[in-house]
């Protein structure tokens, strides 16, 4: 079966391509290389001994998207990662985010509904929950007003897919709401490659430990948590990648009672920023230089997943530990200095 992965050279996308190829799927990758590198293809090939078909294509170009699908009518499923994802950047440049994340999704769906096999997995986010009223956060939690244009594109993206599923009965979709993906493939062939200053905690930690950054800033230690720092649910990227394969197979096997489902993807365990710092020091043997600074606008106090629905209905469960994810992230960071 041919599976299209948009944004397939990005962090989560590349690991999902590996998971798909390891399960025997033929993978086609679309990426515009705006936040990724062609070198990722080499890493995927080194891991799986298979080179995925690659098309450099910008999904905002409607004519190019239409032309691509005209010659790829045999695609059995689409996993849609391609999107801009930096919260701060989205606040400064909202129109870029609405164009890149929503127009592209629209053009993609316009073509998927013409295919013989109409299956899509949507890359969503726990940001749709905002500051949740109850922890852990289940899929039934209320959707709060988005605190950033990025978060809003995830909410609207889900609504676009739901409306399209209602209008086109053959279209089946699963939206996967990620918590905090970290780590790298254990081979250190692929991993997270942020452009410029990292927006996420773990790559900032590893870059500080390797000497690229002077120190790590911990934003606030006066939150109502055990150690005063924010709590998040950190999931190994390979657990996340494997969940996409499980979700795709659920769609293609027609096990669903409805044509649109939502699942949280996390570990169900909340870890504070300082707990992650300590776990990294234990996993790497490196002492981390960090300092406490003022709170960062927009940060919620705590967010971790209720994973019961994904565990029971999809039959998927995260199996890798925080320490393993940090060990793999550190191995990846060290490998970058050798490449």
From TrEMBL:
Cofactor(s) of this protein: NAD(+)
Record keyword NAD present: yes
GO cellular component terms, semicolon-separated: cytosol
GO biological process: galactose metabolic process
Pfam families: GDP_Man_Dehyd (PF16363)
InterPro entries given in the database record: NAD(P)-bd_dom, NAD(P)-bd_dom_sf, UDP_G4E
GO molecular function: UDP-glucose 4-epimerase activity
Pathway the protein contributes to: Carbohydrate metabolism; galactose metabolism
Subunit-level organization: Homodimer.
Protein name: UDP-glucose 4-epimerase
Organism, as annotated: Psychroflexus torquis (strain ATCC 700755 / CIP 106069 / ACAM 623)
């Amino acid at each position: 079966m041919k599976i299209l992965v948009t944004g397939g050279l990005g962090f989560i996308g590349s690991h999902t391509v590996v998971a798909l190829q390891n399960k025997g799927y033929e993978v086609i990758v679309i990426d515009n290389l705006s936040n990724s590198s062609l070198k990722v293809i080499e890493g995927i090939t080194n891991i799986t001994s298979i080179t995925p078909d690659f098309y450099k294509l910008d999904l905002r170009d409607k004519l190019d998207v239409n032309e691509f699908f005209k010659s790829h009518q045999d695609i059995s499923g689409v996993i849609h990662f391609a999107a801009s994802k930096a919260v701060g950047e989205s606040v400064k440049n909202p129109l870029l985010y609405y164009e890149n994340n929503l127009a592209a999704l629209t053009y993609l769906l316009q073509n998927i509904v013409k295919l013989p096999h109409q299956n899509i997995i949507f890359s969503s986010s726990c940001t749709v929950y905002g500051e949740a009223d109850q922890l852990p956060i289940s899929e039934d939690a209320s959707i709060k007003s988005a605190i950033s244009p990025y978060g809003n594109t995830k909410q609207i993206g889900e609504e676009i897919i739901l409306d399209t599923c209602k209008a086109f009965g053959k279209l089946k979709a699963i939206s996967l709401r990620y918590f905090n993906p970290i780590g790298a493939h254990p081979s250190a062939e692929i991993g997270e490659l942020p452009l410029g200053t990292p927006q996420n905690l773990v790559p900032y930690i590893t870059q500080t430990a390797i000497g690229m950054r002077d120190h790590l800033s911990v934003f606030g230690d006066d939150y109502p948590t055990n150690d005063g720092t924010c709590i998040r649910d950190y999931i190994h990227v390979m657990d996340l990648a494997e969940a996409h394969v499980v979700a795709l197979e659920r769609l293609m096997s027609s096990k669903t009672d409805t044509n649109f489902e939502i699942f949280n993807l996390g570990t169900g365990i909340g870890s504070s920023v300082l707990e992650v710092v300590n776990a990294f020091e234990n996993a790497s043997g490196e002492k981390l230089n960090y300092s406490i600074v003022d709170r960062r606008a927009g940060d919620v106090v705590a967010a971790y997943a209720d994973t019961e629905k994904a565990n029971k209905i999809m039959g998927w469960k995260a199996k890798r530990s925080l320490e393993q994810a940090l060990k793999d992230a550190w191995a990846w960071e060290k490998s970058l200095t050798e490449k």
